[in-house]
C-alpha cells in the first residue's frame, strides 16, 4: 500500500534490529549517469525542440551516444537548469510587413503630443478563466462550463478623463460600434476637449468599415492612423489587464458582480493612473523601434 519495495522494508528492519538508524550511510547515494556534457546536450535538445517530451529527449540522448536514463531524470535535469514546460502565451502574429509599418508609424509619431489623444478599445471578459494561481499539495480542480459567458467592454481614456464605459453582451458590428461612439464618446470628449481631440482605435473591421468612416466625417471626429497588430502600443490594454486580474479573484462569478466590479474600477480611475498609462507612449515607441517592429513587453 505504501509503494515501498518489500526488500527495502526488510533491509530497514534489519538495520533497526542491529541498532542502526534508518538514515542513508555516507556514500550510499547513487551516482548520476549523466556527465556535464550529457546535461548540456539535454538542454540543447530542449532549446532546439521545445515541444519534445522528456521521453523523446531521453531517446535522443541515447542516439547521440549518451547513457540510457529515465524520462524523469531528463525532467529533473531540465528543472535544475531552470527549464519549465510553459503553455505558450498568445501574441500578435507579426509579419515583416507588419513590423515595417510599426516602425514607420513609431518614427512618424515619435514627437507627437499625446495630451489630446483618446485611446479606445473593446475587450472581452471571459467568465471562469482559470488565471489565478492557488496553493495546494496537488493541482486544484475548478468546475468550468465548456462555453462560459462573457462580457464585452468598450471604453476610452485620455489625460483629461475617461469616456462613458459600455458593457454589453455579444459581438460588435459596424452599426453597433457607431451607436457606442455616439452614446459614450461624443458628449464626454466634446466637454473635456472643447478645442478638439483625436480618436485612437485599432483596425478591426467595424472600426474601418465604410459606414463608420462616414460616421466620423459626419461628426467631425479625427482618427489617428494606427499600425496593424499593435495592441502592445495601446496603453488602455494595460488597464484591461488590471481589470481582468481583479475580476479573476472574485469569488462570485455572476454578470452582476462582474459589472459592479468593472464599473467600480472604471469610476475609481485617478488622474495619476491615467497619466501613468498614457505617458508611457514615448517609451513604447522607443522600445518598438529598438525591436525593429517586433512585439514589445509593456
UniProtKB/TrEMBL annotation:
Query: Which coarse location class describes where this protein primarily resides?
Result: nucleus
**Which SUPFAM superfamilies does the annotation name?**
Homeodomain-like (SSF46689), Ribonuclease H-like (SSF53098)
Query: Matching InterPro entries, A to Z?
Result: Homeodomain-like_sf, RNaseH-like_sf, RNaseH_sf, Tc1-like_DDE_dom, Transpos_IS630-like, Transposase_5, Transposase_Tc1-like
Where found in the cell? Nucleus
Origin superkingdom: Eukaryota
GO BP of this protein: DNA integration; DNA transposition
* Domain Transposase Tc1-like residue range list: 39-110
What is the protein name stated in its UniProt record? Answer: Tc1-like transposase DDE domain-containing protein
Organism (species): Dinothrombium tinctorium
